[in-house]
Amino acid sequence: MSTKTPGRSKGLNGWLLSTPALVLLVLAASGPLIIVAIYSVLEKGDYSGVRWILSGDGWFGVLFQRDIFDQTVSLADANLTIFWRSVKLSIMTTLITFAFGLPTAWFIATRPPKARAFWLFLITIPFWTNLLIRTFAIMEVIRNQGILNTALIHFGLISEPIQILYTDTAVLIGMTYVYLPLMVLPLYAAIDRFDFKLIEAGYDLYATRWQVLRGVILPIIKPGIIAGSILVFIPSLGAYVTPRVLGGGKNMMIGNFIELQFGQGQNWPLGAALSTVLLLIVLVSLVVYTKASTREGPHG
Amino acid sequence: MAKPRAFDVTTLPGFTFVAILAFVLLYAPIVTLVIYSFNGGNSVNQWGGFSLQWYAVAWQNEAVQDATARSLIIALWASVISTALATMAALGTTRRGRFKGQTVIYVIINQPLMVPEIVTAVALLIFFSSVKIATGYTGLGYLILAHSAFCIPFAYLPIRARLEGMDTAMETAAADLYATPWQTFRYITLPLLLPGVIAGAMLAFIISLDNVIITEFVKSAGQDTLPTYMLGQLRRALTPEVNAISTALLALTVVILTGFVFVTKKRD
């Protein structure tokens, strides 16, 4: 019952209290990932599933394809296109959400306390609104007969509707739209803790607004920037719903391609290998982010 | 802008404009969707006057009723389980000082946030399909288990944030006054922590209700939740019925959120 036992027993308590959560997570989240890695080196089953024979075909299929007739090997252009599209769209999504997210978070954090709660509430409604609903909503806006095209035609800016739906642009718009709150919330948390006296000090030392932003604000809210970027980049990279709905099957991203292997493609080892690749990309970006946030100290 | 007012250090040029623009852009599509759900016409493209007919259609649809009930059952279980486990873990990782292996706990707890959902979904598909064959059980348990797991980090984050922001002086004072650790927890820590716990549970509930991908991969035949039902409907065409369901679900979210804000305000 002693509350002042030092060292070892403290650690034990921490582990004990965390154990139930850890057991569930290992059972229904982390553990199965290991199975994915194992499946990626097995042989493809006849219809779906795998045969328990070691095989490199899954990994081979990530980058290469074998011609059905003459067995010649070539780079799998389609796969590379999908990878490139995923990475490109995810980076762009992260940048655009940051461009909108930083001013939005700043705006909320600098309101008087009562108003702050209201604006924060406004940002959390879209955040907690079903991703599918928000994707439908964006679809409603950008489809050919949607309000965007109707408005543009109405004002005589265009004569024919612009085809946005089922393009990469649609996927980008959709992802920016659905992931924006994920950028705003951690940025807000960081700015909310920010000591505005530091800005005053900056101005007192004759810094311009830009210098204050670059030299004072950004370095201090960096943990929020990193958190927001990770929270946007990772779901973007593995996005499944938004590309499926707005990309219309043609403009696939890695997530849809993986699903295809487990569904129609019936190539579980390839799907598992692709999943592992996605995991590795995520792991690398996490390491890069961590390095970036620890190497540069408070002096930037 | 050179008003006689005192120079405001908190304003940055252009920030307010972009922020307002962001809010307008966030809400315009949702508002459009809501308006179109009251469309009397048979197509999503033509406005056929105000009508509630699509709500009636959705309301009478048995598949929608089933999916709604299933969604709520799963979300309730998942939020209760994940919040309980996350509260324990948050106490274990913040209140006992630093200890060996703490980073491992953080990594495992936050893992569902880090790993793309599609990968987790595929992993669970492989794992649970073997378990289904081995045990013969095909009930909702798998979905509840999976939902509870990925809701843990969402419940954990606000609880931990609340714990870290809490002054330990009260707890120390309680201990100095010979309160047992349990009494300290029951009368000091838990009441102070409650807003965090509620926030965590709310987050978990909505996250579970919202989930599409993992549910789509883990569910057995005939176990559609509202989102997977809607996604399935989309294979054909976007119908006004889906708009109506979306609006109803949106309304539910807003109601829960408003209630939540009200409850937490009262406690302050």
Automatic annotation (TrEMBL), chain A:
<protein>
    <submittedName>
        <fullName>Spermidine/putrescine transport system permease protein PotB</fullName>
    </submittedName>
</protein>
<dbReference type="InterPro" id="IPR000515">
    <property type="entry name" value="MetI-like"/>
</dbReference>
<feature type="transmembrane region" description="Helical">
    <location>
        <begin position="172"/>
        <end position="191"/>
    </location>
</feature>
<keyword id="KW-0812">Transmembrane</keyword>
<dbReference type="Pfam" id="PF00528">
    <property type="entry name" value="BPD_transp_1"/>
</dbReference>
<keyword id="KW-0472">Membrane</keyword>
<feature type="transmembrane region" description="Helical">
    <location>
        <begin position="20"/>
        <end position="42"/>
    </location>
</feature>
<keyword id="KW-1003">Cell membrane</keyword>
<keyword id="KW-1133">Transmembrane helix</keyword>
<feature type="transmembrane region" description="Helical">
    <location>
        <begin position="212"/>
        <end position="234"/>
    </location>
</feature>
<feature type="transmembrane region" description="Helical">
    <location>
        <begin position="115"/>
        <end position="134"/>
    </location>
</feature>
<feature type="domain" description="ABC transmembrane type-1">
    <location>
        <begin position="83"/>
        <end position="289"/>
    </location>
</feature>
<comment type="similarity">
    <text>Belongs to the binding-protein-dependent transport system permease family. CysTW subfamily.</text>
</comment>
<dbReference type="InterPro" id="IPR035906">
    <property type="entry name" value="MetI-like_sf"/>
</dbReference>
<feature type="transmembrane region" description="Helical">
    <location>
        <begin position="89"/>
        <end position="109"/>
    </location>
</feature>
<feature type="transmembrane region" description="Helical">
    <location>
        <begin position="268"/>
        <end position="289"/>
    </location>
</feature>
<keyword id="KW-0813">Transport</keyword>
From TrEMBL, chain B:
<dbReference type="InterPro" id="IPR000515">
    <property type="entry name" value="MetI-like"/>
</dbReference>
<feature type="transmembrane region" description="Helical">
    <location>
        <begin position="104"/>
        <end position="128"/>
    </location>
</feature>
<keyword id="KW-0813">Transport</keyword>
<dbReference type="InterPro" id="IPR035906">
    <property type="entry name" value="MetI-like_sf"/>
</dbReference>
<feature type="transmembrane region" description="Helical">
    <location>
        <begin position="72"/>
        <end position="92"/>
    </location>
</feature>
<dbReference type="InterPro" id="IPR051789">
    <property type="entry name" value="Bact_Polyamine_Transport"/>
</dbReference>
<keyword id="KW-1003">Cell membrane</keyword>
<comment type="similarity">
    <text>Belongs to the binding-protein-dependent transport system permease family. CysTW subfamily.</text>
</comment>
<feature type="transmembrane region" description="Helical">
    <location>
        <begin position="187"/>
        <end position="209"/>
    </location>
</feature>
<keyword id="KW-1133">Transmembrane helix</keyword>
<feature type="domain" description="ABC transmembrane type-1">
    <location>
        <begin position="68"/>
        <end position="262"/>
    </location>
</feature>
<keyword id="KW-0997">Cell inner membrane</keyword>
<comment type="function">
    <text>Required for the activity of the bacterial periplasmic transport system of putrescine and spermidine.</text>
</comment>
<dbReference type="Pfam" id="PF00528">
    <property type="entry name" value="BPD_transp_1"/>
</dbReference>
<feature type="transmembrane region" description="Helical">
    <location>
        <begin position="12"/>
        <end position="38"/>
    </location>
</feature>
<protein>
    <recommendedName>
        <fullName>Spermidine/putrescine transport system permease protein PotC</fullName>
    </recommendedName>
</protein>
<feature type="transmembrane region" description="Helical">
    <location>
        <begin position="244"/>
        <end position="263"/>
    </location>
</feature>
<keyword id="KW-0812">Transmembrane</keyword>
<keyword id="KW-0472">Membrane</keyword>
<feature type="transmembrane region" description="Helical">
    <location>
        <begin position="140"/>
        <end position="159"/>
    </location>
</feature>
